[in-house]
Write a structure and sequence with these properties.
About 25% of the residues lie in helices and about 20% in strands. It contains three helices and five strands, in the order βαββαβαβ. The longest helix has 13 residues. The radius of gyration is 15 Å and the shape is elongated.
Length: about 90
């Protein structure tokens, strides 16, 4: 993607954590997270939900509130990669 130094596919715990880590190390990098969902669910909590130890409604929050400051959120999906061309093909 033009104008993007780092592209993170997926806004789950790993994607958000990766974007935040890169942002802390390199405050100048142009980082974009591609994620289609508007709600971020903290899936590690679901094991505790299944065991009756955690309230399911507390495992989700607005995706916009989870995206690190200075990181762009592109609400969409990535179906393929073209790393040699440094781009994502259009669907």
């Amino acid at each position: 993607m033009q104008g993007v130094d780092v592209l993170v596919i997926g806004g789950g715990a790993a994607g958000i954590g990766t974007a935040a880590s890169i942002r802390r190390r390199d405050g100048e990098a142009q980082i974009t997270v591609i994620e289609p969902e508007s709600t971020h669910f903290y899936q590690p909590a679901w094991a505790m939900v299944a065991g009756g130890l955690y309230d399911q409604t507390r495992s989700g929050r607005a995706m916009a509130s989870c995206i690190p400051s200075g990181v762009r959120w592109l609400r969409g999906r990535a179906a393929a990669f073209e790393p040699a061309a440094d781009r994502l093909p259009r669907p």
